[in-house]
Amino acid sequence: MFAVALLALLAQRAQAGECAQAAAVCADPVPGAMALIEGGRPVAIVADAGDFPGVLRAVRDLQGDLSKVAGAPATLSLDGAAPRTAIIAGTLGHSPRVDRIVRERGIDTAGVAGRWEGYLLQVVEHPEPGIDRALLVAGADRRGTIFGIYELSRRLGVSPWYWWADVPVPRHAALYAAPGRFADAPVVRYRGIFLNDEDPALGGWMKAKFGGPNHAFYEHVFELVLRLKGNYLWPAMWGRAFHDDDPLNPQLADEYGVVIGTTHHEPMMRAHVEWERHGNGPWDYTKNADALRRFWREGIARMDGHESVVTLGMRGDGDEAMGEATAIPLLERIVADQRRIIAGATGKPAERTPQVWALYKEVQDYFDQGMDVPDDVTLLFADDNWGNIRRLPRAGDSRAGGYGVYYHFDYVGGPRNYKWINTTQIERVWEQMGLAHALGADRLWIVNVGDLKPMELPISFFLDYAWNPDALQLPQLQAYPAQWAAAQFGAAQAAEIGELLTRYTQYNARRKPELLAPETYSLVDYHEAERVMAGWEALAGQARRIGAALGAAQRDAYYQLVEYPILASANLNALYVAVARNRMHALQGRASANAWADEAERLFARDAELARVYEQDIAGGKWIHMMAQPRIGYTHWQQPERNVLPALSRVDVPARGVMGVAVEGDARVWPQVADGARLPALDPVGATAREVEVFNRGAAPFRFEARPSQPWLRVSPASGEVGDTVRLRVEVDWNALAADAHAGGLSLRGSDGTEVHVEVPIERADARRARGFIESDGVVAIEAAHTARRVDGDDVRWVEIPNLGRTLSGVTALPATAPASSPGGAAPHLEYPLWLREDGPVEVRMTVSPTLDFRGGDGLRFAVSLGDEAPQEVAIRLDPTPGHADFAAWSRAVADSVHVVVSRHPGRAGAQVLKLWRIDPGVVFQRVEVVRGQARDSYLGPPESVRR
């Protein structure tokens, strides 16, 4: 809670500080401020009728926004008339009024004029005769003006998600624009989203709401993209064709000012499905080149001067790889022919039409093998579909067309589809796209957002980050969720809501919901399933509490953006844990197996009810079908046709009570003949208590009694009645422990006559003088951020990325442009003090983010040393190419959201220092475990060890 309070304080201070910033909009005037709303009356808006159509659309949006905020209509003048105060908006070189004001009032346009999509906001005194004051919005080009207008709307308090997430517009009786000049422009040239894998959710919704993917649908998409300061769109394409479905689609995009492209496998502005509709013959350039060229020529001619980025190249039909016989020369020939078509159809040299070649999957391999790509073409690198960038330019590389990145928040394919809900940590986006920015991939950023709706937070972050990566450093990253929450719900609960957003995405990113299974979290080791569910239950309770405190006008937005993702995700995790308990209890013969079957069925029904509320109750049923994506019952990579409840087991329960016993760390139950029951060892530091469960196999209750074999062994409760299950806590009185004692025992007797003896081993190594992380149960577990010392280098520094990863955070060395380090001595490294109980070999298991070698090498390297030994070099070897030796490791890593790198060392009893040494850039450490022998099985690993 301290972190939440701190974020709230920082947010308040930031808000107060913003009021003193140039052109800031605040409720209280600062000296020299201009009233935008005063006494509930909004200022007028003035623009030139001859400005770009997209500018005039944005001006009308501003008029509507200002009217909603004020609660009174704002006037818009396009005929030259202006009141004493006004907002004046226009494009340099296209608005005579703005040009005149700039010229006659000496407005500084440095850093804006001639700069791609640049704009300025500035309060101007006496901008022209008859006007006392004006807030000037001037853009270098049409989108610059549009972005300036929407930035003003944002400052007024209008969320870009007002329509797409039903975020209410706050009312203000007074708002003022601070004096001064604010200028801005983007760093990444093309910044966009890709609507993909849109059935059944987005596809069903757009059909029900608009009749299909027509201009009535896309006008909402265009406005959203621009309000988020994006400028680029890959339209929905599975069974849909942007140009072919509605000829008004491209016209409207051009009017809005949105740049249209096509996906990585749809060359020459033709949608994939258009070949099915209008193509003739096979999609094979070796057999059908003439037909394909005609098809592509029509696509380029159809652009009709609309601003576009043309995809080059060719993949197999249906976004599959082309045949093995497809040689690099064929692809080079295809691209050369495509560029001739572009030049012929546009009447200008091909290099004057923006083009992109997506190095997606196998096309990356062709490029690595020397495929020639014309220098003016943008090379679009891709991630592995799971948020890990495959390749980036080498530091210092440059080309006229620049470099870009195609990223994913959604994917259909192996090892499993993930489409339902947001599972993307913005911290991982920051880290991976930060690598892209540092290494010069800043011409085009495009992200696959699936159905769009469940991805509101990461979409906002991605496009904000693309606008100016340097403005989003670690402090801004940490504050982003709370600031985003404030933009949707106001400042009062922003810090708490921001924490909810951060935590649910971290929990979902541990393992994507579609990959969850009853076996994911351990029921017997480290109380893992209980700890996971305790986190989700606390989150769900907090979400409900905050939701209840919000006003009625905010409920629809809150359910979409916060409450549904949390409640539905918590419910899904609970469902799989219930199924796991049902199956295990059935195998153990517990009567409670049937109750857990009932609970699983209840949770399955609740999943449907939560979705029904989303689709039918909120916003008057506006979002019908939007949560139709199946998420329960996957059996392989492809989704089931509908949600399927996992198989459950039921048992016949005898009438009389029958005692059974289970012990921590073991799925077996007693009594049994083969082996006796044995608890994991107790120790005075890391395992001060263990648990035994006494459970009922029958319907009637029974009584039990537990008797320790030694006076220093304690059990609570020592007796009682068992209806379902009673959990016993076993502890040692260490002060009374005999010097030669190494084990105790616990005898359990039920009123039904059942008797079970449980062995209780003791580890009593003297750790009173131990310092650091203390070994317990054969493991030392450490969160990577919990270093004792971080040694930076001359050109690198260690940073913690809060919340990144499955358990706490990530630690990496920046900048990514720094050369490789040589481990040893004073080279950059992290230090972790620990204490081992005895001599003997140990494994060091480093849990790292599944980062790929974006340089094209054999894996990102780092080194490990334990004690005084020399650093041992290891590498993260993962490859998403099917058939590659490291493909299986990659498949497991992306499913697990981490990769574990193992090194082996001769452990020495007592105090040690574990060191992790930097070699290559890009390695992100999450946790470290030092393991002796066979570690107990769990998904997240053991809880962090005690530290002294």
Task: Report on the architecture of this protein.
- The chain has 948 residues and is α/β, with parallel strands linked by helices.
- The protein has 20 helices and 40 strands.
- It has an 8-stranded parallel beta barrel with strand order 11-12-13-14-15-16-17-18. It has a 6-stranded mixed beta sheet with strand order 5-4-6-8-7-10, with helices on both faces. Strands 29, 31, 34, 36, 37 and 39 form a 6-stranded mixed beta sheet that branches.
- Strand 7 (119-128) and strand 8 (131-139) form a beta hairpin.
- The chain starts with a helix and ends in a 17-residue tail after the last strand.
- The model is unreliable at 5-17 (pLDDT under 50).
Question: How are the SSEs placed, and which strands pair?
Answer:
Elements: H1 2-18, E1 25-26, E2 34-38, E3 41-42, E4 44-46, H2 53-70, E5 76-77, E6 85-91, H3 96-105, E7 119-128, E8 131-139, H4 142-156, E9 175-177, E10 181-184, E11 190-195, H5 201-210, H6 215-227, E12 232-234, H7 242-245, H8 248-256, E13 259-261, H9 272-278, H10 285-303, E14 308-311, H11 328-346, E15 355-359, H12 362-368, E16 378-382, E17 403-408, H13 426-438, E18 444-450, H14 456-467, H15 474-489, H16 494-510, H17 528-549, H18 555-588, H19 592-617, E19 659-663, E20 669-670, E21 677-678, E22 689-696, E23 702-708, E24 713-716, E25 719-722, E26 725-732, E27 743-750, E28 755-761, E29 773-774, E30 779-783, E31 789-791, E32 797-802, E33 809-814, E34 829-836, E35 840-848, E36 860-866, E37 872-876, H20 887-896, E38 899-907, E39 910-918, E40 924-931
Helix pairs in contact: 1-16, 2-4, 6-8, 10-11, 13-14, 15-16, 16-17, 16-18, 17-18, 18-19
